[in-house]
Amino acid sequence: KFEGKEEKDSVYYAALIVTPETKNNPQIVLMKNGTDLENRFIIYYKNAIKFNVNDEFCYANYWSKIDAVLGESKKVYFSPDGIYNNINLLSVYNPATKQYILDEMEIQTVTNTKDLLTINPITTASKKVVLLGDPDFGVLNGTATLRSGKLSRLPGSGIEVQKIDGVLKTNNWASYLYTGSNSTEEVVKSIRDAKIIHIATHGFFERDTDKKNDQTYKPTDNPLLKSGLYLSVGTKNSTEDGVLSAYEAMNLNLDNTELVVLSACETGLGESKNGEGVYGLQRAFRVAGARSIIISLWKVDDMATQKLMSYFYEEWLKTGNKREAFTSAQNKLRKEYKDPLYWGAFIIVGE
Predict the structure, then answer these.
(1) Which of 98, 129, 131, 255 has the least C-beta neighbours within 10 A?
(2) Three-state helix/strand/coil letters over the chain
């Protein structure tokens, strides 16, 4: 934020463009309408997605100035900050070409520029996959009850993981499936050396305004406790409460995990710290060691989610390239569900 005589409390966004031609200094693209980006246009973006209308403004405000300096580049590594963490750029509509950015460019989202460096490959040759879905919320300890009241079962998420289980086992993967009362927090915390972890359940994200009437709440509380996943406790004697917070997820041992899929609504959200990214589930699982994570920015139709995930795994097992497989799955889903409400909710972040 800049404070001056004419620009007091105005918000600027600066995109730093790094190319082979910018060896000494990155090129800077300055957007002085940050206040509108964080208010007017994000509301417009969400409504355009929700009501399935062509977005006439977001491309011009969120992307056109950046695109203008990218030249002929067809692939971009993008490390978002601020309000850009709430947008799937690939779902932004370009009125001039009548296409989405997904059709025009490959954008690989990374949590920070460190992800671009070559790191040690995963050493395990494991084909182990852990799938959790449709938890039984019938027995929940205090924390979950306080946060959510009564949680409804998610039978669609059970079908989702069962279909994925079938695809994986057909391809000779060691798939471990947990549903109902077996889909527990303890199972997640005990995972070791799994190449893929797929969790389909309810997620939560608490904004400060959600807790304004709670006298025990302080805005300075750990932001990693404000987002998480609901799972089954399993038994009344369990020491777990059925809530896997982002803080707990951060302490998992996922050094040999290539991908975590969080198939729940708003798993990509969290408390945004300008310059530091989002303190939420995506950050937590990446800190725990997961190389990539698939997260969602809004609630998606169960059937569309099931199809997207099935298409993704089928393609990944054929090609071995998860990013290409994810894009292919999105495009395949678009043939059945043309609106970005369905195919644009999930993003893949990381390597």
Answers:
(1) 98
(2) CECCCCCCCECCEEEEECCCCCCCCCEEEEECCHHHHCCHHHHHHHHHHHCCCCCCCHHHHHHHHHHHCCCCCCEEEECCCHHHHHCCHHHCEECCCCEEHHHHCEEEECCCHHHHCCCCCCCCCCCEEEEEEEECCCCCCHHHHHHHCCCCCCHHHHHHHHHHHHHHHHCCCEEEEEEECCCEHHHHHCCCCCCEEEEECCEEECCHHHHCCCCCCCCCCCHHHCEEEECECCCCCCCCCCEEEHHHHHCCCCCCCCEEEEECCCCCCEEEECCCEEEEHHHHHHHCCCCEEEEECCCCCHHHHHHHHHHHHHHHHHHCCHHHHHHHHHHHHHCCCCCHHHHCCEEEEEC
Residues of the chain below pLDDT 50: 1-5, 140-148, 210, 212, 217, 219-220, 268-278
Q: What three-state secondary structure class fits 159?
A: helix
Torsion of CA 252, 255, 256, 259, to 10 degrees: 70
Q: Where are any strands of DSSP class E within 87-160?
A: 93-94, 99-100, 106-109, 128-135
Q: Provide the residue count of the chain.
A: 351
Q: Which residues contact 190 (CB under 8 A, 6 or more apart)?
A: none
Query: What is the rounded average pLDDT for all residues in the chain?
Result: 85
- The pair of structure tokens assigned to 122 is 């995963």
For residue 193, the model assigns a pLDDT of 92
Q: Taking Cα atoms as reference points, which of 205, 249, 252 lies closest to residue 227?
A: 205
79: nearest Cα among 259, 262, 253, 276? 276
